[in-house]
Amino acid sequence: MTLFHEQVRPLVIHESDVAVLAGLSLTLLTYNRMEEGEEEGEDADGLDAFYAVVGHVLQDTQHRLAYKAQSYIRAHIGGYRITPSDSEAMARWVRLCLRLRIADPAQLSALLDQPEELPPDDAECLQWIYPPVENCRWLIAQIDGCLDYEVQSGVVDEARTAGKQNLLSTGARFVRDSSIKSDSPTTEADAELMAHLFATHNLATIEHSTS
Question: The pTM is what?
């Protein structure tokens, strides 16, 4: 069992994919000895060595997962930069909201709750989520149940904070500035309204991300 741990540990500590580490954590948790109702020191199955190795590998995996999750937050949430395709998607989103006269988040949510009422292209456009917010939602779903409660809560809070900061400092500001600079006759008031709508809608998406 010691040899097994020595062979597996390097694979774990060099793994960089959050999804792979999360899946491995969940698998190891299935075999973790300390299940509800089981007392420390019981050896009914004679598998002490097996459970000890599982515990060590699980600890290594969870430490690596927490570290890579924080790296993911820095690179893909807090440090995310708007791409040309993002710029085009935001411009389409703004134009559609203006055309449909969507003035508040409740109205937008009502439309998104019934996408079948819209043409497919319009529904797809309105459902677009700012990538750092989508990345935040993805990460929270990936690590759900994979880490100790306190560690997971800390990572989730860090991801949400980074997502909100990027959204407000970069995403909403970009929507406002690009709306004013666009060729379409968008007033400054409309640009402010769209930035507020964009920020509020995406903030709600972050808040509704569960772990």
Answer: 0.86
